[in-house]
Structure formats: structure tokens, C-alpha cells
Amino acid sequence: MKTSTSSNSNSLRSTLAALAVVCAVGMAALYQGTMGFEVVSTEDGRRLAVSRQPRELPAAAERMLGADGRVAIVVFFYSSCNAVCSVLGTEFQQMQQEILRRGLQREVRLVSISFDPRDTPPVLANYAKRLHADPALWRMVSVDRELERKAVLDAFGIVVLPAPLGEFQHNAAFHLVDTQGRLARIDDYEEPAQALEHALQLARTTPRGRL
């Protein structure tokens, strides 16, 4: 009986030790993924990281965005989306009207980037026409090459997952690229007025051109 009790005790200690290791590894991963428990999701972590350290963008993103001395408010979408992309399109329509009403077009511009290879230039041109996008203020662009597309999505922290019926699941937000071509802030897509004000702050406080 003593031998059996000792064996059970050793087994229990081994199990508890293994559980302790698993918990420690899990807590370490959680600590890293939540930036020291400061955020509750990967999306929150993405936004916090950018707010702390503006992110340099790859050459592919620079070519798409261009550099004209204005802050760019950037969203990612695909033209056949009937969910969050439609919301983003409507919000950009309203933001375009507000920018023009307040005469802010020399400080801020809008850029919609499609990650869907099916969104060819003619498709995007029709989409822009449907939304009454002013080409001097609101550009719609796509990334043709797969490697460049991945580089751009990774730089902005965009996750795109294929879904049934040719759809995609993806995270959405307003991405603010400052006058030095850096991703400087990420705002919630449900707060377009806030995103515009933050873009104006960047336009008026960030030196123009690269350091």
C-alpha cells in the first residue's frame, strides 16, 4: 500500500508540474500578445504599437499612396463586399463631403486599397464612379502582384481570410499615414469624425517629407 501511495503521489506531482509549465507558457504568450496585458485583443495591440512607434511602409505601399504632402486616411476593402466595406465606402463619402465643406483637401486625402485581385482598374473606376469619389481627393487603388500585396497587408497589419462564395473576412479601420509616409495611427472605423480630426492633427504637427 505504501508503494502504491508513493507512486500516486509522484504521479500527482508530475501532473501538477506539467500543468505549471503549460500555464507558464500560456501566460507568457498572453503577456506578449497583449503587450504586457495592456490590451485585450490582437487588434488593440496593433493600434497601440503604431501609436507608440510610427511604422515605416514598404516601397509597394509608397508607390500606391504617393507623396504629395498630405496625410492619407487609408482603408482596405474589396468592391464586391456587402458588409463592412459598404460601411467604409459610405463613411468615406461623408468624410469627402466634410473635407470639401471645410476646405481641408490640401491637408488630408482618402485612399481605398483593394486586396482582391478581381478588382482591376476598370472595376475600381466603376466603383469610384458609383460612390462619386473625387479623384483629386479620394483614390482607389489595387495591388497587382501577390508578393507586393502581402507586403502591404503585413505592413498595415491587415488579415484577410477567404470565405465562402468568393467573399473575404478582414479587419477594418482607418489607417492614418503621416506626411513622412509612415503609418502613424489607427482609428476605429466606426469613428470617422475622430479619424478626420486626428488626420488634421498629424497634418499640422508632422514635418513634411522624410526626416
Describe, in short, the structure shown.
Keywords: Copper, Disulfide bond, Metal-binding. Belongs to the SCO1/2 family. By secondary structure, the protein is α/β, with parallel strands linked by helices.
Topology:
Elements: H1 2-33, H2 42-52, E1 55-56, H3 59-65, E2 71-77, H4 84-102, E3 108-114, H5 121-130, E4 138-142, H6 146-156, E5 160-163, E6 167-170, E7 174-177, E8 182-187, H7 192-205
Parallel strand pairs: 2-3, 3-4
Antiparallel strand pairs: 1-8, 2-7, 5-6, 7-8
Task: Pick out its properties.
Thioredoxin_domain, six-stranded mixed sheet, Glutaredoxin, 211 residues, copper, disulfide bond, metal-binding, 7 helices, metal ion binding
Give an overview in words.
The chain is an alpha/beta fold. The protein has two domains: 2-50, no CATH class; 55-205, Glutaredoxin (3-Layer(aba) Sandwich), CATH 3.40.30.10. 49% of the residues lie in helices and 18% in strands. The protein has helices at residues 2-33, 42-52, 59-65, 84-102, 121-130, 146-156, 192-205; strands at 55-56, 71-77, 108-114, 138-142, 160-163, 167-170, 174-177, 182-187.
Write the CATH homologous superfamily of the largest domain: Glutaredoxin
Largest β-sheet summary: 6 strands, mixed
Tally of individual domains: 2
Given the structure, what is the number of helices?
Answer: 7
What portion of residues is helical? 40-55%
